[in-house]
Amino acid sequence: MPDPSPLAVPTRFDGAPDRVALVVPGVGYTPARPLLHFARSVLLRHRWTVQELWWQLPDDFRVFEPEDRTAWVERQVAEAVDAERGACRLLVGKSLASFACGVAADRGLAAAWLTPVLTSEPVARALARAEAPTLLVGGGADKLWDRRIAESTGHEVLEVPAADHGLELPDDPLGSIDVLRQVTSRLDRFVASLATRE
Question: Are 7 and 75 in contact (CB under 8 A)?
């Protein structure tokens, strides 16, 4: 098999072989975008192996029924988790990735969901039954976020006032960098706390 192109973007970053974190994208929010890029940095700092999931949504995904969207995301994430042969212990996902909350709940996986789609009943129900450590991060101006639902799950919650679905502040790039720092810091504490629960 030929060597991969030197220009290819790596999707796997090795750390502890028995502690794999799967980084799951949103609709158009790839693992290269800031929230997930710095999530990867946090995980590597704590010596996790990181496997990024890059996906290509089906052309007709936007017209899928809600249950079909959930099933599609669950299938992608479950296959990636299975590929780790029991070593995957954490999911970190953005937006659409939260449609895999049921996978995390069923398999007892810790999770950090950045802007989870709390307006989706299956997502909210799965979060309510998840027993593994879970962090929920959302923006006060995000229409897909619901602080009441987030807090009702009993999980750790960080809400950033005025932040939108990208966890950015409209027309305020420097303020958005401060938000990124706040979210990254909270994620760092969450990942560090997982070691104390082992």
Answer: no
What is the tens place of the pLDDT at every residue in 39-65? 999 999 999 999 999 999 998 988 898
Per-residue tokens: 2: 């030929």
Sorting pLDDT into bands at 50, 70 and 90, what band is 6? low
H or E segment to which residue 185 belongs = helix 173-196
Ramachandran angles phi, psi of 157, nearest 5°:
-135, 135
Interstrand relation of 88-94 and 156-160 (parallel, antiparallel or unpaired)? unpaired
Give me the helices (H) in 19-169, please. Answer: 34-45, 66-83, 101-107, 121-129, 147-152
Query: Which residue type occupies 120?
Result: S
Number of Cα atoms under 13 Å in the Cβ half of residue 129: 12
